[in-house]
Amino acid sequence: MPHILKVEKLSHKYNSNWAIRDINIEINGNGAVGLLGSNGAGKSTTMNIMCGVLNQTEGYVYINGQDIGKEPELAKREIGFLPQQPPLYPDLSIDEYLTYSAELRMIPKHKIKGAVRDVKERCGIAHFSNRLIRNLSGGYKQRVGIAQSIIHQPKLVVMDEPTNGLDPNQLIEVRKLIKEIAQDHVVLISSHILSEIHLMCKDVIMIEGGRIVFSDSMNAFNDYIQPHSLVIRMEQPPTAAELLTIKGVTKADFLTDRQARIYFDGDEEVAERIIAASMQQGWKLRELTLDKGLLDDIFKQLSIQPNS
Q1: How far apart are CA 141 and CA 185, in angstroms?
Q2: Which of 93, 128, 162, 204 is 20 to 30 A from 220, alpha carbon to alpha carbon?
Q3: Which domains occur in the chain, in start order?
């Protein structure tokens, strides 16, 4: 079976400056994949080339085995795209707009009505079928934008900042919808918001300075920075000064009367020393947990631009 998305040695430059360089991506199997990067990192250029909007300077993009440069029509049939500003027509109703979207996607006429019905049900907008798009809330406009991106059942769905500008309730609903779509499609989500990628995606690709600096699972991304602090809870806690006498402990801050965060120098045996000290001194240790690196810390570390 061909990869749903395969990108080989993809590079592009504007004038004399390289926007992206030697991008390699392989995705095969449904699920949500995050495309992370700061502004100007190269995310938009990469997405535009993947979707056939921009011709690359070097390299290849294959969508479900089709070279988008040589067979653009065949490749684009397998792509759904939701840009940051959904391409909606405010004076059309949902039914009118989705029918038009189905025609643009060259769905056979006898199948359009069924395709519109199915995608409305899937995106939770069937009860607003005849409402003008201009009269919808931001969350429902986004649902209509998502509906147009999947109406033709593409293998790959590309979404650019799909939760941008939504209120908290709308965020929850749209995240849930995207997760459901990812069960049957590859969904590539571009964003600079780490928390959104963390909540929706199983894998992460990070571009910085036009190059991929990380490509792995979300768990691997979370574990990228080794923990250098732990939180302990005790019934009879010592003073901060006493905790500092434990070999490897560099700092101790009490969060509550009985809970403290302890920073250490990377020595993996520090936890065992704390447990031993608790038993000897009668601190009655009840809980000890390692702190994982915060996503923002990981982002900062990975955002150091690679050498050319």
Answers
A1: 21
A2: 162
A3: 5-222 (3.40.50.300), 229-291 (3.30.70)
